[in-house]
Amino acid sequence: MRSAIYSRFGDPATVLSVEERPLPEPGAGQVRIRMSMASIHNHDLLTVAGQYGIKPDLPAVAGTEAVGIVDALGEGVGHLRVGQRVAASGKGTWAEFYIANAATCVPLPEMISDEAGAQLISMPLSALTLLDFIAAERGDWIIQNAANGAVGKALAMFAKPRGINVVNLVRRDEAVTELADLGIENVVSTGQADWQDTVRAITGGAPIKAAIDGVGGKSSGDILSTVGENGLLVSFGMMSGEPMQISAGDLVFKQAIVKGFWLAKIAPTLAPEKLKSLVGEIVQGVASGAVTLTVSEVLSLDDVAKAAAAAGETARKGKVLIRA
């Protein structure tokens, strides 16, 4: 089977190549999936570059999330059937076939497209889990940067029906319109000199309970400056590639708290009932159209290096996907 392989860590556009690998066999509790479409996430690119929290043994097949058709069942799998379309995270999803744990496969209704199914789990689940992680409640104000990223857009959309108010920071003026076209409100460009005044006008002076930072660098301090007393700053991304720069004054005088968030650590601690509820909320939101998972470009698996380069570009309006 064709697979996107890397034998050394480095620039994904340089180190990725398509090679033939043996067809994998599912073990107990696993399924083999014939990949239809796979997502390219930021953490996928960081993993290939050797800059993520997990470093796989090399050579490795890239990719962690896809949609496809169940092709074979491992021992003990009774709730899925061969031929069923599912969204599933797994290792090595940038390949014609990949292995996933059967318990984590999400059967898809017809109204969810392959484009949405390929990105249904990781980013939306991060968004919903972040809302729980910060204990956001109806009527609260929170703020996030990188709001035009996959997690940022999903978080804003899921927060709305929960009655949680979100200020959405972007770094380009054009992104304000992009998010407004998706029905996302309270979008502020930090490219404007008076953006913090705009934030105060939007909240009406109400305290901001938590700030979600996906950028790092100077942006960490900028967003921390907006939170109220006993506010929380959550770091979940490092888009800038720079260390967080935060004010000691904000920490001391606001008694602010800084926490890190990584879904890979949080998800295993969730009770099965809670995880099922969150996934159900995602499926319902996407199927109903209340949540839109946007796509920038779809490229062939044979063009994986080109696809990785496209996914690393700024100013994208959605995910870059790979089709088998």
TrEMBL record:
Residues 10-322 form the Enoyl reductase (ER) domain. It catalyses: a 2,3-saturated acyl-[ACP] + NADP(+) = a (2E)-enoyl-[ACP] + NADPH + H(+). One of its GO terms (biological process) is fatty acid biosynthetic process. It holds the Pfam family ADH_N. It comes from the Bacteria. One of its GO terms (molecular function) is enoyl-[acyl-carrier-protein] reductase (NADPH) activity. Keywords: Fatty acid biosynthesis, Fatty acid metabolism, Lipid biosynthesis, Lipid metabolism, NADP, Oxidoreductase, Transit peptide. This is enoyl-[acyl-carrier-protein] reductase.
